[in-house]
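Quick one: structure for this chain?
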Amino acid sequence: RESPFCSIHPLVAHQSKHQSTMSSAPKKRTFRKFSYRGVDLENLLDLSNEQLVDLLPARCRRRFSKRGLKRKHMALMKKLTNAKKAATQGEKPEVVKTHLRNMIIVPQMIGSVVGVYNGKVFNSVEVKPEMTGFYLGEFSISYKPVRHGRPGIGATHSSRFIPLK
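Got it. Here's what it folds into:
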């Protein structure tokens, strides 16, 4: 009697034959189409402000409906659209610097490059569709993360103050 582990299982043998025929043809990559809360990117750009506000999270809804966008925020939007228009096809637009870390990313900003100030330097942020509904400040960290367990001043006995005699 032959052991079942010695022979190749018929399904496994069929898969290996199938893989050898597929490896000769180049595999075409398919990209996942972006949608924000069930709305495609093309449709997202066509929405009115009221319809867009209904899709955003509660904090953003409150900000747009109660207080609206201030003059500085509107000026930033205008600069971003002008930079996008001035850019040639296939190239990234010019960096627009801003201190407005509290600006909510809207679909009209997608594709722009924003220099977000973190208190010291302007960090370049390329706005992607996944960033819709977030604040600009979330992509420009304003502090240096703590590195626990690293020696610093006062961490060793050699760095201790030694009084003069």
